[in-house]
């Protein structure tokens, strides 16, 4: 007579137990924010299906977070509407657990909104140093930054993971990868802040989304010592241009900046500024800082270009050189200035590349994604990655 050996480890009944599953918002919850996500906590399995419907039976589109901790509706929920979420979890044995939750959103918030601006437009072509930037007015307090950051989403194709980093005063947050974006990359951004509770007395203002591509790699290197600008494409020098930078009383900032705007024509009106008081029309102007530093055509200083710094902080070029440069650069191209009397202040422009990656990640309010940490191992720890040849060429 043979006796059956007992199963090792957990009993068979335990091995076949269905997964434990909890979902949020809680069933019958009321006054739920319109930014609500359907959260799921699973033990002994994984979420395999989520279906969200509104009070008219229509299905609500949603996407899972990378860690599958929640499903994020693709657009804000409606106010004073009732939603039902059905979540299915499957265990290793194949057994499933289903949980339903029904919740109702609150009325439109009477709290003042924080104004957010997404500096990333759709259907554009940007330079390889383009950071995704979101600005806030008033700034976001430290205690609320993690909640805001969790509602900022970036996808890249091909994948090139990165992270967000906050300017110290909370007025801006940047997203970048350890290395420059590869030419041809598609970047999709969503700033999903509408109705999001921010601190105790504010809410997010809007839900914004955009998808654009990365173009060829162009970089400008400006040296105050030589009074020359080097224009590089795919890491190769294509032209040197004489420049005149800011005079000692109004110096140009040294640091790593990004072209923020391009204007065929614009007017500088500095009346009321400490070192201003003038109004001048300029052509072929490219903004580098919020403080008003531009690269632009300046026919009045051609005699000084290449020899002396005479501007109010801008980079002066001849009219023909400035016009040529406008045809070469893109918003999002890196501009490096060195040798001047003052350093670039963090947050004065899109200064995501003015620090190393190791320093950049310290500004994140959340843990850096594992994928971005893995990518960092193959990237330079300084803000000067190796140029990648452009797919677009020429």
Automatic annotation (TrEMBL):
GO cellular component, one term: extracellular region
Transmembrane segment boundaries: none
Pathway: Cell wall biogenesis; peptidoglycan biosynthesis
GO biological process: cell wall organization; peptidoglycan-protein cross-linking; regulation of cell shape
Gene Ontology molecular-function annotations: acyltransferase activity; peptidoglycan L,D-transpeptidase activity
Classification via InterPro entries: Big_10 (IPR041280), LD-transpeptidase (IPR050979), LD_TPept_cat_dom (IPR005490), Transpep_catalytic_dom (IPR038063)
L,D-TPase catalytic domain segment(s): 218-338
Name the record gives this protein: L,D-TPase catalytic domain-containing protein
UniProt keyword annotations, A-Z: Acyltransferase, Cell shape, Cell wall biogenesis/degradation, Peptidoglycan synthesis, Transferase
Alphabetized PROSITE patterns for the sequence: LD_TPASE
Organism: Phytohabitans suffuscus
Keyword match Aminoacyl-tRNA synthetase: no
Listed Gene3D superfamilies: 2.60.40.3710, 2.60.40.3780, L,D-transpeptidase catalytic domain-like (2.40.440.10)
Pfam families the record matches: Big_10, YkuD
């Amino acid at each position: 007579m043979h006796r059956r050996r007992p199963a090792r480890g957990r009993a068979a009944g335990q091995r076949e137990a269905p997964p434990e599953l909890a979902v949020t918002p809680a069933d019958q919850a009321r006054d739920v924010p319109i930014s609500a996500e359907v959260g799921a906590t699973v033990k002994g399995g994984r979420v395999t299906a989520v279906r969200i419907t509104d009070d008219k039976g229509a299905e609500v589109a949603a996407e899972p977070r990378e860690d599958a901790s929640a499903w994020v509706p693709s657009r804000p929920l409606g106010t004073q509407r009732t939603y039902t979420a059905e979540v299915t979890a499957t265990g290793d044995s194949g057994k499933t657990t289903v949980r339903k939750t029904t919740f109702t959103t609150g009325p439109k918030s009477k709290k003042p909104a924080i104004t957010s601006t997404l500096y990333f437009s759709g259907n554009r072509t940007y330079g390889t140093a383009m950071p995704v930037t979101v600005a806030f007015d008033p700034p976001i307090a430290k205690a609320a930054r993690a909640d805001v950051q969790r509602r900022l989403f970036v996808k890249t194709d091909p994948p090139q993971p990165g992270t967000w980093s906050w300017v110290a005063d909370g007025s801006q947050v940047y997203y970048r990868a350890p290395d420059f974006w590869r030419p041809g990359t598609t970047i999709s951004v969503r700033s999903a802040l509408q109705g999001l509770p921010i601190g105790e007395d504010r809410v997010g203002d809007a839900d914004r989304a955009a998808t654009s591509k990365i173009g060829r790699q162009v970089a400008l290197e400006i040296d105050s010592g030589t009074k020359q600008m080097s224009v590089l494409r795919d890491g190769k020098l294509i032209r040197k241009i004489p420049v005149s930078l800011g005079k000692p009383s109004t110096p140009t900032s040294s640091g790593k900046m990004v072209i923020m705007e391009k204007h065929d024509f614009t007017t500088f009106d500095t009346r009321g500024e400490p070192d201003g008081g003038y109004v001048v029309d300029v052509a072929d102007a490219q903004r580098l800082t919020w403080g008003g530093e531009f690269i632009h055509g300046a026919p009045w200083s051609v005699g000084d270009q290449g020899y002396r710094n005479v501007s109010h902080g801008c980079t002066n070029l001849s009219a023909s050189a400035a016009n040529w440069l406008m045809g070469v650069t893109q918003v999002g191209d890196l501009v490096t200035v060195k040798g001047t009397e003052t350093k670039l202040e963090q947050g004065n422009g899109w200064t995501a590349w003015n620090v190393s990656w190791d320093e950049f990640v310290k500004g994140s309010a959340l843990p850096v994604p594992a994928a971005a940490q893995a990518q960092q191992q193959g990237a330079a720890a300084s803000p000067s990655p190796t140029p990648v040849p452009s797919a677009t060429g020429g």
